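Action item from last week, closing it out:
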Amino acid sequence: MQSSAQIIHRILTEKLDDGEIKNIVGSVRSTAGADYSKSLVDILEQVADLLNVSERLLDNLLQLLVEVTSDIAGAERGTLFLVDSESGELFSRVFGGEATQEIRFPLEKGIAGAVMTSGEIKICVDAYQDPLFNPEIDLQTGYQTRNLVCLPVSLQPSGMVIGVLELINVAQLPLSAEKMAILEKVTTNSARVLHNAHQFEQIQQARENESHLLEITSVISSELQLKPLLEKIMEAVIMILNCDRATIFLHDEKNNQLWSQVALGMRDQEIRIPANRGIAGEVFTTGNTVNIPDAYKDSRFNQEVDRKTGYKTHNMLCMPLINKHGVKIGVTQVLNKRGGAFSRQDERKLASFSSQASIAIENAKLFNEVLNAQHYSESILRSLSDGVISLNNTRRIEKCNGIALRILGAEENQVIGKFADMTFTGANHWVVDSLRRVIATNDSDNFIDAEITNLQGKQVSVNMSV
C-alpha cells in the first residue's frame, strides 16, 4: 500500500492513464475503510494546491477529480464540462469510461446548461423524462444515461460558475446529505485550480499555435508558383487540423466559377463548379463558415460525389478565403477530422491560417500574371517581322528579338543587358543621340534609309522609329 505522500508524488511526477487513476482510487478505498472518502478528498485537495503552483500534469488532476467524485457518488462515470468563453460553449474536458471524444454544446443547452445558468445542483432521477435532458450526447457517445447528478463548479467567494460536473448513472438516489456535502466541497475546492489550469492551457495553446503558424507561413510565403503553393497550403491545413482531405477552390471571375487543381488525398484533377452551387458555393456567396459534424444528416451535402469517388465523407469544415481588401477569392474545404467533428478551435485555427494563406495566394497569382505577360510579350517579339529592341530607364537593353539581332549581326549575349551607349558607338552614335532627344522631349524620332554598321562591320540600311 502506498502512502498518501507517495500517491501525490506519483500524480505530480508521472503521466497517468485512466486505468492507473482507477487503481489509485481502488487502493485508497481498500485500505482506508470507512474513511476512504475523506482520504480521497484530502489527496485531491493536496494535489490541487500543488498543481496550482507547479502547473504540471493538469490532466492527472482532472482525471482524479472525475474518478474520486464518481466513486463517492457510486456513479458509473463522470463528465467534467468547462466553459469556452470564446465560443460561448460548454465542452467536455474529462471522461470516465472509454469515451474520449470532445463534446460541445451551447451554454444554455441541456441539464448541464441549466446548472451553468442557475448555479444550483440538479438531480435527475429519470434522464429521458426530464425536458431539459439533451439526448444528443448519448447519441454521440453510444452510452445510455438513466439518471444523473449535476453540480456547478464555482469560484469562491465570487460564486462565478466556471464549469459543471455530471455524475451519470448513480447506483442509489437520492444521495445522502453527507455524500452531497463531500461532493460540493470537492467541486468548490477544485474550482480555483481548474480555472487556472484552463487559462494556462489556453495561453500555452495560443503560443504553440502562433509559433506553428509563423513556421508554416514562412514556408508558404517563399513559394511563388501557384500550384506548388496550393499543395503546400493543403499539406499544412491537413497537418494543423488533423484531417483526412483538403481542397482549395479559387474564384474564376471571368466565368464566375470555383475551380481547383489540387485536392490532397485525391487524384490531381481540375474541378470546376458554379460559384453559387453546393456547400463551397454557399460559403463563397455568403462569406459564412459551414461546419457539418455529420455530412449525411445535412441536406446541403451532395452524397452523389461520395458515390462517384467511393469515398465516405463523415464531417466537413468549409471557410471562405478573403484577401487583405476584404474580397472573397475562394474557399477552403476540409474533410473528415480524425477523432470526431471539427471544433470551434479548429475553425479559429483555419481562419488564422487562411488569412496568411490568402496573402500568399494573391502574391502567387500576381506573379503568375506577370510571368504570363512576360511570356506573351516575348512571343509577340519573336513573331514580329520588324526588329524590336526595348530598353529600361537607364538605357540598358532588356529585349531584342531575332530580326533585330540579325540586323545587328549579334548574338543575344552581345546585346541583352548592355547599355545602348556602349552598343551604339562610333558611326552608330546617332542612335544614342536620338534616344536622349526622345527622353528629353517625349516625342518620337523616325528615320528612313538610315545606316547602321553592325558588329560584323557591314553597313545595313534601316527604317527606324525611336
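Closing note: Residues 7 and 108 are 38 Å apart (CA to CA).
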